[in-house]
Amino acid sequence: MADDSRGKMVMTSGVCKVPSGQEQHGKVFTGATRLCSRAKKTNDRQRRQRYVQKDGKCNVQHGNMRETYRYFSDLFTTLVDLKWRFNLLIFTLAYTLTWLIFGLLWWLIAYVRGDLEHRDTPDWTPCVKNLDGFITAFLFSIETETTIGYGYRVITDRCPEGITLLLIQAILGSIVNALMVGCMFVKISQPKKRAETLMFSKRAVIAPRDGRLCLMFRVGDLRNSHIVEASIRAKLIRSKQTQEGEFIPLHQTDINVGLDSGDDRLFLVSPLIICHEIDAKSPLWELSKEGLLHEQFEIVAILEGMVEATGMTCQARSSYLETEVLWGHRFMPVLTLEDGFYEVDYETFHETYEVATPACSACEFALLCEPMTPSARSPVAHLDGWPESREEGTNEAETKRLTSDEEQAKNMTSGVEGSQDWTAGCNGDISGPGCNEAEASV
C-alpha cells in the first residue's frame, strides 16, 4: 500500500508523481523561480507554504540565473541591497585597498628616482620629503586621500610624475568617497524599517456590512509621524487552470478595496478597517462558509505611502491564508474618546467577535435577499449569463423561463421583506444548509 501511494508535484510543464514521503517537502517550480514548501498538518489540514510571509517578506528564491553580470550593471543598487556586514566589509576594503595601491605607487616613484638611496644626502631634492620606505609612503597616501595634511611629508615641485599621481589620487579618492558615503547614506535612510511600525491584523474576517458580505482586515500605524498619500491594495493568489489546460500555480487576481470609490486612499492617523465588498466582480463571489474549509488561496495586502520625515516611499506587506479568514466575525473597536483627544487601544487591535452571518456565499445571499425585478437582476445575470433585457434577442420560451426563475427567487425572498432580521432569508440559520438548499432549488 505504501508503494502505491503517490503525491503530486506541480510544474509549469505538467504534473509529475512523486512518492508520498516527499509530499511534506514538495516544491512548486515556476521557470527559474522556486517556491519552497514544507507542510505540516494542523487540524487535519495541511498548512501550505506562504507566498508572502506575515512580516512582508516574499518567500521566493531565484535559481539558475546565468546572467549575474546584470547585477554589476547596476552596481549602486547592488551595493545598497547587500546586508550590513557586507556593506561594512566593502566600505573598509575600498578605502584600505585604495590607500595601499597608491602607497605602493608613491614608494615606486621614490625607488625609481633614487630618493631612498639619497635620503641622507643634504643637497638631494626628493619627490616627497621624509619618505624613506613603504610605511611612510602608505602614510603619505592616507594623508593625501583624506586631506589630513600633517605637513611632515610633502610633495616637491621637482617631481612631475608625483604631481600627476597626486591629481589621479585626488580624483579617484573623491569618486570612492562619493560612492561609499552615498551607499551608506541611502542604506541608513532606507524606509524599510519604517514599515516595522505599520501593522496588519493577524486575521481577516468576512461579515455583513450595509447588507452585503464583505471581506475586512485592519491596518494601523504606531508612529506619531504619519504616512503621507497612503494607499492600500490587495491580491488574491491561488492556482488556476485555463480553458486550454495550462496550469498556473500562483495566479494573481485584484481584490477591489475601494479603487473605484477612492476608499483605497487612506488617512492613516488611527487604525482603519479595509473593506472589500464581495460582489459579482469579486473573486470571492461564490465562496461560502463551507467552501472556505476546502479552498486554498492567499490574500496579499500591500500598504504604500511616503514617509513624512524623508519623503521616501515606504511599503508594508502582509498576507492571509484561508485558515486565517474568520467567517462571521467583526473587529473589536479600538478607538475611544477621552478628555479632549481620541485614544487608540492596540491591545484589542487583533481581537474579533462573532456576529450573525449567513453561511451561504455572497452569490446565494444576493439571490435570497434582493428582490428580483427586470431592472435589478445584475447578480443573477452575471452568474448565469442572462441578458440585460428581454428585448435583446430573447424568444418566447426563454422569456417564460426567466419569468419562472424570477418568481421562484421572489418566493425564496418572501421571508426577507418586512423582516427586521435580514438573516431570515437564509431560514434564520446562519450556520446551517439554508443557503445551500436555496442554491440547489434555483
TrEMBL record:
Pfam families: IRK (PF01007), IRK_C (PF17655). GO terms for biological process: potassium ion import across plasma membrane; regulation of monoatomic ion transmembrane transport. Residues 375-442 are annotated as: Disordered. Residues 410-422 have a biased composition (Polar residues). Gene3D superfamilies: 1.10.287.70, G protein-activated inward rectifier potassium channel 1. The record marks 177 as: Role in the control of polyamine-mediated channel gating and in the blocking by intracellular magnesium. It is a multi-pass membrane protein. Residues 198-365 form the Inward rectifier potassium channel C-terminal domain. Keywords: Ion channel, Ion transport, Membrane, Potassium, Potassium transport, Transmembrane, Transmembrane helix, Transport, Voltage-gated channel. One of its GO terms (molecular function) is inward rectifier potassium channel activity. Residues 385-409 have a biased composition (Basic and acidic residues). It catalyses: K(+)(in) = K(+)(out). One of its GO terms (cellular component) is plasma membrane. Residues 52-191 form the Potassium channel inwardly rectifying transmembrane domain. The chain crosses the membrane at residues 88-109, 163-186. It comes from the Eukaryota. It is found in: Membrane. Belongs to the inward rectifier-type potassium channel (TC 1.A.2.1) family. This is Potassium inwardly rectifying channel subfamily J member 9. The lineage of its organism: Eukaryota, Metazoa, Chordata, Craniata, Vertebrata.
